[in-house]
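Researcher: Please translate sequence to structure tokens.
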Amino acid sequence: MLLSSAVVGVLFRAPWGFVLLAVTLVGSALAMTVLFRAVTGRARWIASIMLALLPPAGVWRAIIGSGRIPFDTVYGMPAALAIGGAVGSLSMLALPGRWRFAGAVSAVLIATPLLIPVFAHAAERAAAEERAQRASVEQAFDGLVDPLGTDLAGTTITLTSASTDAAQVAVDRDGRELVILTTPTGGSGPYDPDAFACWRLVGTESSEGDETMAEFADRCVVVDGGWATIDGSVVGTNVGTRWVQVEAGAGATPDDVMAVFHSLEEFPEERVRAWFDEHLMRDRKGGE
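Model: Translation complete:
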């Protein structure tokens, strides 16, 4: 009761609580040294101090675990009996011979029900963190712009970048290089759809998107399935909620651009996943 009262005072930061706790600890330690001297002939100060600290440590553990002070019962037993039994059992560790073995067994029996919830909580917290991290990774993957590639014969395609803003695929057609750029886009709204598409393709100084098609007459034309620059080096179109354009690179001709443009298809998801996982692992290693 003294210990519980002292803990209450300490929790409420009452000066008398700290005084009562100190008196209780000192009194307990002195009483144990007397008992140890009577049984073993030695005071065993260290063991006495550790055993004196055990009850307040147990009360603190009970408060952390259940949120209440163990006034009444501990594991179904009267609190005073449970605390006294634990201290008495562990005191055997300071005794010689087979008593020490009995104390070790008691320590295991006392520690097991205390440690199992701790380890279980730690394991559950680690599992929850892993689930949250996995969900975050999947959310990041789902947020990527879905790239388009090509199934044109004689070409190889490589995903070079992907994010929530754009995805870029490099195309090699017999040594001639092209790029397929996919970005999210909405509709043209109230604007001329042809002029809006040309604005996306070649841009303007104002970049408002409300230009007329006449303003693009010398830079952009409507072609089969989309829009192209006058020189044919870039062709673009809308695919659902995405804007995709094919750009000529080193050695590529307008015919190469149109051939790739007319063979556009979804980039294989498994290859996007492989690219994502590779870059995720690379970023993690770079952060270590």
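Researcher: Any highlights?
Model: The mean pLDDT is 79.
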